[in-house]
Amino acid sequence: MTHNDEETMRLNKGQNSAKVISLVSIRRLGMIAALVAVLSFVGYAQTTSKSGPVRFENVRIRYEPIQGIGPEAGMMRRDPSDVMKVSDSYYVWYTKVLETSPGYPEGYHGTLWFATSNDGLSWTEQGEALGRGAANKFDAFGAFTPNILYAPTTDKYYLYYTGVRTEDDKNWDFTKFSGSIGVAVADSPDGGAEGWQRINNGDPVLGPLINEEGVFDGWHVDDTVIYYRGHKYWLYYKGQSLENQLEGTGLPQGATPMGVAMSDRPDGGFERVPLSQEQAFLVQPGHELLLWPHGEGILSLPTGHYRPKHSDDFCLHYSPDGLTFSVVSPVIPSTRQESNRGLRAPGLYRPDLIHPDEPYSGPLWGLSMTSYGRNAGLQRFMLELNE
Questions:
Q1: CA-to-CA distance for 360 and 350, rounded, in angstroms?
Q2: In this model, does residue 338 exceed pLDDT 60?
């Protein structure tokens, strides 16, 4: 890779304060109270784990093209899942949208496809994993933004995704139809003999709080990241509300803060986690969310559209418990890509998707979108974190 292929951010030494300003508590009807905070920082913030302080003075992001599922005329491959390795093969799931689809290049009319690789660079598209739902279901118009998990409690694979419906197969209208999160299950990552089967009678396992006001996830939930941690299934998700639901929250229309729900099982029963009025589990909202284990805790990198304070950067966060995150390093987005939003809809290679209790110290890499435009495909990225 050349120097121009790298993004490097070096922090000002000696400045290690971070100021978190709480915007407003978000009312939950007997279930959840949360905050979305705006962050301003100089230098790095420091937090601790059982093994000592967690901080990063240097973060690099590198990109390189891949074969098989990159940009291609007449279609768009977008929103890759986290990458899973089963035996000797890497697996990734993603949204595929044809140029003839309503609303192209948006991904709402997409379906879920998957590809495999032996090295993470040369990929083979294997076919569609999950199509659209039945005509009367929440995902009748489209299924998109997949993510994946192997559940040790059931010995099965679970494919989480967002679904939307519409009228007369027209382009999806956010103000008329909400989005929810569904799950499909299979005996193997390629679907097995029976293929991926929707669970919960084809209904969502997590939906928005449609009839509530003063909430960040009152109309749409999306972009699942799933964990098995502490004998619980943790479902991180992005929320969005209509303008009239945001009164009293201090959030602008279009803001997409992150929430989390938990369950004892991977196929449903998810309950939103109450948070104290002094905290937000992510201190800076993003359009997409990257999470991965680090020591005893979790690192988080919100990416994409929404930046409440710093329109040209996004921040790396650490949480020792998966709920309270602190900034440990800012990151400067790429200037060589078509926009300065940095990583687009990234999914990381996560060995914990198969082996949740085994620590991983190998390279951090994954797949992200090449752009948000027409004929976009997937590319590989590398994260280098120097403590």
A1: 9
A2: no
Q: Which of 19-23, 69-73, 272-276 has the lowest mean pLDDT?
A: 19-23
Per-position DSSP letters for 266-293, written without gaps between them: TTB--EEPP--TT--SSSS--SEEEEEE
Query: What pLDDT, in 10s, does the model give residues 121-155?
Result: 999 999 999 999 999 899 999 999 999 999 999 99
Answer yes or no: are the C-beta atoms of 329 and 55 closer than 8 Å.
Answer: yes
- Domain holding 201: CATH number? 2.115.10.20
Q: List the single range of 28-42, 66-80, 274-288 with lowest mean pLDDT.
A: 28-42
| CA-to-CA dists, residue 245 to 220, 238, 265, angstroms | 12, 16, 31
d(CA 33, CA 26): 5
If you search the block for the tokens 């509530």, which residue do you land on? 212
Residue 118 lies inside a defined structural domain of this protein: yes
pLDDT confidence of residue 356: 92
Supply 263's token pair. Answer: 């369950």
Q: Would you state the pLDDT for residue 253?
A: 72
Whole-angstrom Cα Rg for the chain: 20
pLDDT by residue (tens digit) across 238-260? 888 887 777 766 677 777 778 89
SS3 3: helix
Is residue 275 within 8 Å of residue 257, measured between CB atoms?
no
In a domain? residue 55: no
Instruction: Measure CA 373 to chain center.
Output: 19
Q: How far lies 9's CA from each of 4, 16, 57, 151, 354, in Å? A: 13, 15, 8, 37, 32
Rounded CA-CA distance 382/348 in Å is 9
DSSP 46: -
In a domain, 1, yes or no: no
Residues forming a β-bridge with 385:
59
Determine if the pTM surpasses 0.90. no
User: Which residues lie closer than 8 Å to 171 by C-beta, 6 or more apart?
Assistant: 102, 103, 106, 108, 109
The domain in which residue 221 lies consists of: 66-275+285-305+319-324+343-386
